[in-house]
Amino acid sequence: MKELLHRLSALDEDASAALKIITFFDTLLAQKAGLEPFVRGAAVLAGCPAGFAHPLHHIWLRVDAAGHAMPPVHDIESVRSWPHHELADGSGGVVWLERPAGESAHDAVLLERLASCLHLTIERVSPLDLDDAGAIEILLSSTSTDDARRKASRRLRLRDAATVRVVAVPAGAEDASVPRSAVVATPYGPVRASIVGSSEDWAAPRHGVGSLVTLAGVPRSWDQALLALRVSSRLVPQVAWDELGALAALGALDLHDAPPPDVVRLGAAAREPWALDTLEALARTESVRAAAQLLGLHHSTVQARQAHLEEQLGFGVGTAPGRVRVAAALVLHRLRTTRFDESG
């Protein structure tokens, strides 16, 4: 498929773009994604907010161009001024793109494919006939109705008063043993989301963990788990949101803004394959010898690396203030750069 897309793009850019759209949505279908990933994907592909309304199932989804949920639109008539497409099943469902300048060349293909995929997905994950993956998607979504949540929790054999946490694992991770899991499309790539009861055991080599919540708080725990996974690393592959403390607040920053100087310099230093691990070890320990032990290196090697990195960063990393700066810069760097693919 990649070879076909490459050849087609050389012959006809419009045809190539249309095929990429179709391939993107077909991939989500093959992964048995829930409703929200399709709308999110449409918004990111189109570069403008996208929405989906299905009054029969009480579904109201709206996502901005960066893939973040927006307040839903409940008045279907108000969206018909945007480029839109009706679901072909006569249900009254409609998808739309909030493009200020009107339709672009590929909007028709995108909307038709989005509507078709959502129709097929509704048939699969309808609250009247849920599978486990569809139930997980409903609990993760902040726009699901209370009734849909109750039916989804019953499908997953969770009591109404249950307390759970969400665990986020790279989709392609090996040897991941997590219950109630489904692969979810995110703005950072496919991630396996799992809803784990407070007394349940689970294991995964790399993961992010959200806080313990009631079923109504699952979307919040999912956001936390995803953030924790994004700031995990080779040295620290397992991160709990509860343990991030004040560093978790960095996830609320607008990453489209220009990065702080420390993050810019750290990004330049990261061209050295050993730089990030070395900075992580120095930030997490109180001496060069302790950092060397964590890295499995001789302390003189780490000392030389530290001197080189301090020259690039413009500040000392061996002091308490320096370690705080490095820790914050590492979190911001990973939030800006971490992406997941099918291989994890």
Question: What does this 3D model show about the protein?
Answer:
This protein is of the alpha+beta class and 344 residues long. The protein has three domains: 124 residues, no CATH class; 87 residues, no CATH class; 85 residues, Arc Repressor Mutant, subunit A (Orthogonal Bundle). Helix content is 45%, strand content 14%. It has 13 helices and ten strands. A hairpin with a 2-residue loop joins β6 and β7. The longest helix is centred in the middle third of the chain and has 19 residues. The N terminus is likely disordered.
Q: What structural category characterises the helix and strand content? A: alpha+beta
How many domain modules?
3
User: What is the total tally of β strands?
Assistant: 10
Radius of gyration computed on alpha carbons: 22 Å
Sheet with most strands: 6 strands, mixed
Number of helices: 13
Shape: globular
Low-confidence stretches: 1-8
Distance between the termini: 21 Å
Summarize the helix and strand pattern as letters: HHHEEEEHHHEEEEEHEHHHHHH
